[in-house]
Amino acid sequence: MRKTIVFLAMAALMLFGFTAVGDVTAGEAKVVATIQTGPEWTPPERGEPLTIPEVHYRVKHSPYRSELVRSGQFLFNDASWGLQGEYSCAACHYERGQSTGLIWDLGDEGWGSWKNVKYIRGGRYLPPFRHEGFTGHPDEIVGATSSIDRVCGRDPGFVFRSENWSADRLEALIAYIRSLEYTGSPFRNADGSLTEVQKRGMKTFYDPKVGCANCHPGDPMDKRGMFGDGQTHDVGTGRVGKYGFRSTPGAVFNTKALDAGVDPYGEEYDVPIIGLDLVKEFDTPTLRDSYASAPYFHDGSAQSLIQTIDNSATEKDKHGVTSHLTEQELQDVVEFMKAL
Amino acid sequence: MKKKSLCSGLLSAAVLSLALIFIQTADAGYIQGTRVQSEHPSPFSISISPDGNTLAVANQSGHSVTFIDAKSQKVTGEVAVHDQPESSVFSRDGKTLYVCNAESDSVSVVDVASKKETKEIKVGDWPCNIKLSKDGSKAYVCCSGNMWNTVDVIDTSRNERASVIELPDYGPRDIAISPDGGTAACICDTAGSINRAVCFIDLASNKVVDRRPIRHSANLRSVVYSPDGQYVAVTYMKPKNWLPVCEAENGEVFTNNVAVIETKPHGKLAQLPLDELNNYDGTPYGLAIDPQGKYLYIAVRGMHRVTILDFDKIRDIMISNTQEQLDSYTDDLDFVNHYLVQRVPVGLGPSWLALSPDGKYCYVCNYFSNNVSVIKTPL
Q: What is the ipTM of this complex?
């Protein structure tokens, strides 16, 4: 017993001696040891950049393997492949695949058309992709064809100032996005059933006079219920002409808001921009995980769920017919949506 | 008869394979946010016992905690917890470890000696950070769900949720306890806001007593108090989303920063860049400061390195500049050279770090390399 202790002490001394000798000059920080706690891992090679037709081919025919998903998660969080290491996909989309909820002018739909960062969990279930609903054939790669090739595949140099992706890296990134699942709501009863308030809200939601389910069909008990119809609609959220302009956090300023005393130069909106949409129809988003995807609408103009249905961010009764509902009924619908 | 034995054979085989599945969960979980099996534990955060002898690594995809003996630098064991653990903290006597299971909305109580979970405590949505009160009698859990705004308080003598602190903002992401134990600083990473805030909580009344917004901030990740209690530091990113995304150069999409805030009422707030021209610290995460308050350590998840800042110099900058002057440095990509000590390359995806009690070693967990880098600090 004593022997082993002495031995251990010596071993510790040797280790210590080793690290101390390991050329650490005073005042300079240095990695002196690495403790492996799992399998060693290296990311996919950068490889030869793809041409644009190759990108399209890869986007459509990517395989789906766990090792790829893991590599894709790395690329999603890695900032070093951009020119200067400024940011990664996770800077806008969050490391959990959710969203930091900011609006950006990505420019490829015409400058000045700010878009709310998409919540990309579960995105693979519901083409078309992006708010304007580009492309999208359900058989195509799930996970946002147009965004992969527009935001990060076809011309990554545009957003990231980096070279095009190589085949391995692009496949990995696609596999990761395809694999992201909805988180599921924390607002239900512990056994997964709906609370009384949520059930009341559900009734209103399915009321044909109100009409939500026309465009957001689904069954809350069915995990595959998407609450989106995969179509684009004009629900009075397109900011064109007299319908006003936006400021960066997504607030909409129109005559009504200005009359109500909202100050576009106020603290929260201190960098007003003139943002106008080029279209009025937008993709119906899924309502799954909507508790986690604020702010809402293509331009983030509804800061909370209630603002999506109380006619404050849309033209009156164009996004479902809700002006006859009481405050309580609207609130119940919000509680129902939080449970999806 | 034959049929029966066949049945029981099948049954026991099923039980066995089920058991095997359970045994495997400690080291083969789902990839974070997905249902794809992975053998990668993905260490997301690291904490150190008060005596500095034991490290605990929370494995986000492994759904487990790995213990490391800090002296021998050897792995001493692993304990399965629940889904996606993102943070842990040792009790003051080092005998118990509290682990936040982000996806399971719970905190695991782990007995360090026997390496067993002894209890699971339900808390709010997405618990992602946990800190102990100064006397160790309470643990504060940040419940960071996008529509959640509480810090849940666990009584560590009964290991039960004792109370809930409500915050004015959603998404409490990390919390730091002041050195005198009276106040907590909680950062709220509120989705959608471009002016995310630090909430100061009076721990006697559990009430928010001050709220300090950081102008143009997003992705708030970590907060620490300086040892003298006069400052808190916060890692975050500054989005420039009023500009079209066509100029990634010169920090015109995002810059990466640390905010340093005087804790006294109406104190100054500096938004200090971590970036240099052509060399950015993309997505800064965990923070630590040594007990002397000399160096600040930042795990830079996107750039695979630890950035070390000279906190004495930062203190000088805070004292000798007016708020207006401080504001003018925010976008200056030369300014970091006033307080940058060193950028130390580590493994891939360093997300969190912990310092030894004497501040001489910094342990960094690398999410994608599945390892811990041990840095000998400049102290």
A: 0.87
